[in-house]
Amino acid sequence: MHRIIVTGATGQIGSELVPALRERYGAANVIAVGHKKTPPPELLELGPYAALDIREQSALAALVELERIDTIYHLAALLSATAEANPLHAWEINMGGLLNVLEVARLNNCAVFHPSSIGAFGPSTPPDHTPQVTIQRPNTMYGVTKVSGELLCDYYHSRFGLDIRGLRFPGLISHKTPPGGGTTDYAVEIFPAALTEKKYTCFLKKGTYLDMMYMPDAIRAAMEIMEAEPGRLRHRNAYNLTAMSFAPEELAAEISLHIPGFTISYQPDPVRQAIADSWPNSLDDSAARADWGWQPRFGLAEMTAEMLAALSG
Prior knowledge:
Layout: E1 4-7, H1 14-25, E2 30-34, H2 41-46, E3 49-51, H3 57-67, E4 71-74, H4 80-85, H5 87-108, E5 111-113, E6 116-117, H6 141-160, E7 164-165, E8 167-169, E9 171-173, H7 186-197, E10 199-202, E11 210-214, H8 215-227, E12 239-240, E13 244-246, H9 248-256, E14 263-266, H10 270-277, H11 286-292, H12 300-312
Parallel strand pairs: 1-2, 1-4, 2-3, 4-5, 5-7, 6-8, 8-12, 9-11, 10-14
Antiparallel strand pairs: 11-13
Helix pairs in contact: 1-8, 3-5, 5-6, 7-9
């Protein structure tokens, strides 16, 4: 029987992963974990919640032992732009928190899901159709923690036999949670701006291609890889994953099909533009498709239509 905790449960991914896991495994078997003492009401109303600081290993260990946890979805982390603003804090949260999770999982024989990111790549990585296995030399603290996290997870699997699995997520787009300090947040911000003002000022420049994914696909992928047959997972904790690649003007053009007169302008933020320029334009996720059957369901047109419909309702 699955007994699951989700760290970072109040964040962009966690807010939607927790309900999906509860639907699959039963609300009582999925404990949302976050740093907020008072989480969103739906987390409290629909299942158990625990507040803890992921940097406190003893608190995490006590929760895992008390609740007889066998699976940890570890999502607690600082995102790219936020991490760059406070790199030492980002290392403490992203790497210290991961090490705590892995140690607790080792001692309690838990499976672990840990997401990586396109941020794990850098300017020397092949930018187009980036291979599954390639050079990774990121130049941001967020990217450094993601590469270090991939290696640390590899070590815990090879050294201790820990069942760790993960995905290199692209930019994630959702209508349910506000942006959280990521470089791809423009692709979230643009939708409410289009509906309320019919215009948007983008913090990335025209022609900045990045991989993206609609959140329902990301949630499904996280659950699918954890349910996959272990022997099929050649890359285990860092599968390239994507659904679409577009530049801001292409997203704006798609929105214009639904909102005539919508316009986009550009005022690049130097920090986030530099981060975006260091990331791939597009990823090769053929390994995920071959090893565990990954297949996205939402492209640019389908995602845009759903986002606008949800935000209009």
